[in-house]
Structures
1.
Amino acid sequence: MRKKIAIVGAGNIGGVLGLLCVMRDLGNVTLIDVNEGQAIGKSLDLSQTAALLGVGASVVGTSNIEQGIAGADVIVVTAGVPRQPGMSRDDLLTINAEIIKGIAHKIRDHAPEAFVIVVTNPLDAMAWLLQRESRLPAPMVVGMAGILDSARFRYFLSEEFDVSAQDIRVMVLGGHGDTMVPLVNYSSVGAMSIQHLLRDGWLKQDRFDAMVDRTRYGGAEIVNHLKTGSAFFTPAASAFEMVESYLLDKRRIFPCSAYVQGQYNLRGIYIGVPVVIGAEGVEEIIESPLMECELSAMRDSAKAIRELIEPLEKTLESV
């Protein structure tokens, strides 16, 4: 039986993700959006793409979330208000929290066996909220963040050294925002570690610091150019990698926003950590040794995430 992939939010990210799933014939796709015309229109376009490619995937669009997610193996949540110029991911908290809460309740009632990938910003807080309100096991809810941030970092390094990004390895952990933590110890260009390149003068510290900052503010850079939207190609491709690893039990290692229960001395929040994604969801959180400065940065990142979660907790407790 073909797998069912439900995408909640048929905007730019949802549309590109649907296309990737169709092109790889990964399963049947359902696009869900409050704007029914957008969901149906894009599903029709994608169905015609499937016919052109000769793949067996079916694509349907609907505004009925209950029907759309029912029986889904994977649900990718992209719904929410995108950032505008001058707006931080955190500015979206109140607006998108209400959207995510409603979606979480629908998942709880109609798709309790699904693996859920959250893309909506502010990412870590929204993943925490969806898991709490849906009551799904924590390994079955994960946030897409570190894959995107790492892709940006890889690209900037490839530009700096004028080499293929394919030969660059990086790992970006922490919250999906200004407090993200690019790991120097686990970054390399070919066989040369970033530490080695910095020590031997192949890479100047100020140039490296500039790339780290550009990675942290990479989303805002794109928003400022687009004016009326935010990044969507790379977020969609990142989510696709996670969907594929789950459905095909590939057990790939990704930096993702996962629920920590003591790993990296952090507990009770969603934050970017290295995880193994396989048929059981987040099957393992890999606790890699970090330098003290990196552990300190992780603590700072966790603090920023908790500051977002606290008002949500108060609101939920008062209901």
Note: The longest helix spans residues 292-318.
2.
Amino acid sequence: MIKYIILGAVVVFAIVIIVTSYVKSPPDKAFIISGLRKNPKILIGRAGLKLPFIERKDELLIKQISIDIKTGDYVPTLDFIGVNIDAVAKVKIRTDPEGIQLAMKNFLNMKEHQIMEALVDSLQGNMREIIGTISLKDLCNDRKSFGDQVQEKAQVDMNRLGIEIISCNIQHVEDQNDLIIALGQDNMAAIQKNASIAKANADRDVAIAQAQAQKEANDARVLAETEIAIKQNDLSIKKAELKTVEDTKKAEADAAYQIQQEAQRKTIEVTKAQADIAKQEQEITRKQKEASVKEQELDAQIRKQADADKYRQQQMAEVELFKRQKDAEAQKYEFEKDAEAKRIKAEADRYAMEQEALAIKAKAEAEAAAIQAKGEAEAAAIQAKAEAEAAGIDKKAEAMKKYGEAAIVEMLCKMYPEVARAIAEPLGKIDKITMYGDGNTARLTEDVTKSFKQTIDGLSDSMGIDLNTVVSNFLGSKGEAELPSDFKEVTES
């Protein structure tokens, strides 16, 4: 019994030792087991055993840590411009054998904020050193390069502590005299200028492209409408042709259907008549057999009576058969006459349509001939009128020559005032005339005189008489006192 108690106590003790010595490290922490071994055991994301009272467990934070790096005050750049920079560095403890050994010596059992406080001074110092080697413009234009330089320089110091710098990003840059804003305004003006030029060029390209697109669209629309019109015209023609073919085929089909229907009807009638004849023949055969049976049973007198009945039935059957054959032939003849009448009617309709088309054509030709004859008559009338007018003018000229100079001058005395009045009448209706330059009044008078002279010359040409020569000769032969009063008025006008 004591043996079992001791064994149970040993088992329970072993279980307690195992339970209390079991440890499991999370992925973001490293458990350092030290005590019995010369080199401590490191557990990262796995389980292990720690002997109670003999070994100890320490923790090392290996997750990523963000550290805010600030210069604190203005630090001069390469071109002696004070800047204040705010950056963020992401670091973590190295997990390689050498790095974790160094980290255990410096950051064992430290919290996250303690590690940040231990590293921020070194990172700020390295950033200050890099600021002094770069100009303000380069710092603003290439922040990534600046962050890479800070990371590269600070990594040398971090390697001694077992720290790895994952990244270093510049968050904010501020200069002491607001020179960054001035550089931005200069760049902004250049950017605005380039943007305005680019916009103008883009607007021009858009306008050109729109005009070209509109031209191409209009050309395409015109071409499409033309093709549509051509296709529609072809379609109309094709429809008309197909309609003609359809009507022709339909008429032929109707005629063929009627012919076939009549043929079927005739076949049915003939078949029916043949069936009736066959039925009669069967009836006669049956009666012959009956008569033959009775003939054996009856005597000679009865047989004679049967023969007489048989003969009468035969004669009646032949009469009925002959009658049915004649009826069938009569119906066939009527069907053939009906079909011939329909064919003749169709030919008559076709001939009537052809005659109607010829009549329409003849009417059109007659109308065209009438229009042509009317045009020729009107042309002949115009020509005759023109010839009559010309002959009248010639006769008038001859009569005027016979009148003599005195009569012509007398006529001119009556005509000249009317001509002068007609030429000057438009000027009398003008309210006011404003003339510029020298000699315009004389030119106006000269234009009126030329108009009068041109009118007289036109009359001379139409009458075939030189009126100016007639008047000159008349004036040379007469004195002023002898001139007609009307001519004096013309001269004064």
Note: The chain has eleven helices and nine strands.
3.
Amino acid sequence: MDLGIRGKVALVTGASAGLGAAVALALAAEGVQLALAARRQDKLLEVAERARAAGASEVRAFKVDLADRPSIRVMLDGVNDAFGNVDVLVANGGGPRQGTYGQTAPADWDAAYQTTLRAMLDLIDGVVPSMRDKRWGRIVALTSTAVRQPIPNLVLSNAFRTALVAALKTLSGEIARDGITVNAIATGRVATDRLRELYGTDEEMSRAAEREIPIGRVASPQEFAPLVAFLCGEGARYVTGQTIAIDGGLIRGIFG
């Protein structure tokens, strides 16, 4: 399917591995100009080579630390200098530390606020004005099923990812008539380093998936990426303000 975004400028954060890399490669296949951003430059350059081979019309790698607000601004300025303004933003970042409410200190809340909520809003703030000027834009934030069904031992993710989705829903209504769509993905169990960190081993991850997920397994990042790419395209111009689960049926609610 041609998503109608050939030549558009797409920025993907957290693009050095896992979900971010998979989404970046799916967008590369659509012929976008691709800005990849992450902390790990060596891994990012590997993804950049794969993106060129996949069909991206141009690819650049940018270092960014989402825990550092000035770093985000420097990265956004670099992207704008290299490509012009961003048309498509896929806002993706690592999750906050594990822990129950009782195990979580004020400093943990402060750190999680920056990386899980504030950094995502900084990215969005950096691209929306130019999208409004062009009257076209796509914003997709990768969040978690925690926004629909809180996850035990992940109080920080439960709190700040839900706050992000609420902010995105509000924003979507404010800028819909500017030709900009804003959506979120409630990410389920996908085989990434983050999920391995939470479960400890691949074996335990697989056992938990078999118990808890109707499909009976975790997803690969490549199964996750096509829907995200679709939301970035012309065919999704009437889809906005949504939080869409990619979770193998994990969320039990009717509106999951």
Note: The beta strands are 9-13, 33-38, 58-63, 88-91, 137-142, 180-187, 243-246.
4.
Amino acid sequence: MNQEQIGKWIAYLRKAKKLTQEQLAERLGVSSRSVSRWENGRCMPDFSLLWDLSGELGVSVPELLNGARAEGKEKAGIEDSINVFLVWSGQEKQRKAKKLKHYFGAGAVSLILALLQAKFGTVSFLFPDGPEDLLTGILAAVGILSEFIGFAYIRQNAFMTQREIELLSKNGGTVRMKNGKEMLQFAQKYRAVDSKCYKAAFAEIEKELKGNESVIFSATGDSYSRNELPMMWYAVLAATETRLLIGGQRLKGLIMVRYEVESFALNDITRVEQSGFSVVIHASGMELKIEEGNPEAAAGIARGLREAAGIK
């Protein structure tokens, strides 16, 4: 990627939309100086802004980063090779920052407590029967260990495994998945999520697989309704070669929740379409609706599900 070329491309698209740098910055929630730096080729927009920026400028993320509009097969190829890595890179960046914050934060607190204990015996007030030197040593050891773990984590290889690349870059019908972790990984190509609830929902899907049955398509949504009746939250989809599984979180009583799975034969699905922020599935006279985070995610998931189910 040529940073200077991308900057000129951003400036060209902004002017074509008749937007000033200040107006574009306001829509994105950044400063006009940031927009200026992008257009001058001095820096790149943050990963988290690329989807919003491309939407405001009327291009796809791959077209934005390629510095030109793409058409036909070329467009499909670019989306498969670039968009996938952007999704992963943005998530990896957030995940790593969160872990590093925990490691270094815990280490710093422990070292400060060790210093206070050695100087003033602060921690001894909480543990009056404990040997002061031992408490100081334990706190110092925990602090140093946490800091070492943090530095070690920075040095870890951040490249994806071959299997992760497969799950993110292939189309429905070419990858076989047997466990919930892989289903969640595959779903990231449509929508970035990182929630224990989605992991739990896919784990429930995993339990429902029979014998040699495997999943060829998976996706996530905010909620699931059947004939406009709310059914589940943190909805997940998983298509095998013969059926569609929809799982998610359902209330049990007033405050308890449980995870359930519904199954529909692929032969009973007559149509899959996007409707605004939703994916609408017509099956056996029922309308199944999965609410998504944005129209682009809904369109991608609807297209992927149609391919997996062999529906034109």
Note: The chain has a mean pLDDT of 80.
